[in-house]
Amino acid sequence: MINRTLLAGRDIARRIINNPDYGWSIATSYGHIGLNIVVQILLVPLYLHHLGKVEFGVLMIVLGAVNYLGLGIGWVSSGAQRIMGEFSAQNERENLQRTYTLSKIIFVVYAALTGGIALSLVWALQGTLFPDNPSLAIATIRMVALGVVYMVVLYDFNVDRLVLISIGKQAWANAHSILSLAVFAVTIFPVLSHGGGLVSVMAALLFGVLVARAVSFILVHKQGLRLRWPGHEGRAVLKRLLGPMGLGYGLYGALLLTLLQADTLILGVLGGPLLVADFVLVWKIADVAMQALWRLPESLIPYLIQMDARGEHQRMQSIYASAQKGMVFVAVIAALGFALFGHNVVVLWVGVEHAPDLPWAYELAGGTLFWLTIARLPAVYAFSQVRLKPLIKVTALEAIGKVIFVFALFPTLGLYAPLVAINVLHILGIAYLYQRLYNV
């Protein structure tokens, strides 16, 4: 097993050397993950110290909601990435720019509308959500209001990232995400140390994405890309986005977001901010590790799209065979490591007074890390080749099954419910169905 994995690793390394942009995209992608890990390691203890566990739980719920609201825009994000990748591969510059413009219009309008609705709901339900803490209700409303502005800028910025990725500038797109995170980190540490609260956290996030957006604007223009009114060609692109491909991507994106982001929202409704805080502390490091392991296959997406558009399927198969062996190997190591030492790591991270000491919680989190990691490469291949029907079926079974399990198990298992749900579902057959995706 180890020899095969080493051979697979050498094959992947050879491919990276032969494709410098992919190598840089991997390096910057992991640079972003590494910086995120450092920031989270330093920030979470500060959140707990300066905000307290209840406000920390509220912050996690709001940030989870911001991420989850993206479920309605997946049909544009994934579909536009596919279409812009095709136009780039075929050197259709004018159509690329029209798709870029159309995507910006849809993204910004969507962010403003959904953010406004979310703010209205929090305003209307403040008495129910915070019956005994009016000052926390006011702080939350202000944070959500600033969050709406953050969403608009972030979604506009994400379209710039998509177009840069489509023209082979994935490393630059990743670098802009690193810049956004770095500016946030440099801003938030002194702000928290000087008494900043929930609103200050959102303001720092907004400042970071504003700086990155300004830099991405400059780079996009240097590539000769301009906003072009979509016109008749834009209607053809919109038809594709609203057709089976775009809606399929949208449904898959909504299901994936539900799978990854719904935990804090459901636990927040069922158990409140304190329970969410404990769940985040148990799962956060494993989640960051999973996201890091996902970056290798996800960085392949723009190249797989172009290979698929050119019909280079034998090359795709060769890459898959090499990469999946490596993914299984690192997933085993990461899962066992967290299962055995997760509690010790969290104690070192936030202190013994904050680290949840729950039997089997870290073992279950390690199992969840393993199953989700080995499922990602076949999902990426199906996604890149627009084989959405089988991908959606498997992801729907997993996401819907998880939500049902969480609600059913919560009265007995509490914060264990999401972790138990993933492990049980994959053992019962979801893991097998994911591995079959590439052969469908």
Automatic annotation (TrEMBL):
Subcellular location: Cell membrane
Membrane topology: Multi-pass membrane protein
Gene Ontology CC annotation, any one: plasma membrane
Primary residence: membrane
InterPro entries found in the cross-reference section: Poly_Biosynth_Transport (IPR050833)
Membrane-spanning segments: 21-44, 56-76, 105-125, 137-159, 171-192, 198-220, 241-260, 266-286, 326-352, 364-384
Keyword Transport: no
Keywords in alphabetical order: Cell membrane, Membrane, Transmembrane, Transmembrane helix
Protein name as it appears in the record: Polysaccharide biosynthesis protein
Organism per entry: Magnetovibrio blakemorei
Lineage, uppermost ranks: Bacteria, Pseudomonadati, Pseudomonadota, Alphaproteobacteria, Rhodospirillales
